[in-house]
Amino acid sequence: MNVALETSTRKVILSMLKTQGPLSVHDMSKQLGITEMAVRRHIHALEKDNLLETKLVRQAMGRPTNVYTLAPLADELFPKKYMQLTIDLLDELLEGEGNEKIDRLFEGRQDKLQSRYASRMQDKSLEERVAELALIQNENGYMVDWSQVEEGEFVFSEHNCPITQVANVFQQACRCELALFQNLLDANVERTECLAKGGNKCLYIISQNK
Predict the structure, then answer these.
(1) What letter would DSSP give residue 75?
(2) How is 159-203 classified by DSSP, letter by letter?
(3) d(CA 3, CA 48)
(4) pLDDT for 81 beyond 90
């Protein structure tokens, strides 16, 4: 069996478990029209990727059997509309409460993030704070790289923005990220390119406060 077909079969197994709930190897073998040995090979690969969970179920007759269910990680493989929901809710808030309410909402998020990460910046040089900020943003999916261009000056690039769809509509997201960086780094931070404004990345120039 080629790799593409194997991958396709694993997707079908995940879809079956999503729509039907717990299934045994025998159940899957019958539905897929392949041998139980082949199913077990796919199951093993999915378990290795932490996408499946197994439990032992007693039968009315005979020995207990293993059944498989989706692990929490597998849920992320299925379509989600979180961003559209967020935008719809923000639109409703904007219509009902006005722009100032949206501003306060994003500023509140900024304050929470600042409180969450401030301790990670303590007793560090500016270079160490930039490195720590890169770790924080990478933990959150921003795909960061950074470099020092001269003494006390750094280039900080985010190649992905997990909230691009929101930032495209609500510029408060970008303003608050800039303010968050300035406060966490205790430095001068200038954004020269922005994904939400058509750039290839979000590019920041960071330098010592004068």
Answers:
(1) G
(2) ---TTHHHHHH-THHHHHHHHHHHHHHTSEEEEEE-GGGT-SSEE
(3) 16
(4) no
| pTM attached to this predicted model | 0.67
Q: What is the pLDDT of residue 64?
A: 82
Helix (DSSP H) and strand (DSSP E) numbers for the chain: 8, 7
What does the pLDDT look like over 151-160, one tens digit per residue?
899 999 999 9
First and final C-alpha spacing in the chain: 64
Chain-centre distance for alpha carbon 28: 31
* Phi, psi for residue 121 in degrees, rounded to 5: -100, -10
AA letter at 70: L
Gap between the Cα atoms of 145 and 137, Å rounded: 10
Question: What's phi and psi for 112, nearest 5 deg?
Answer: -65, -40
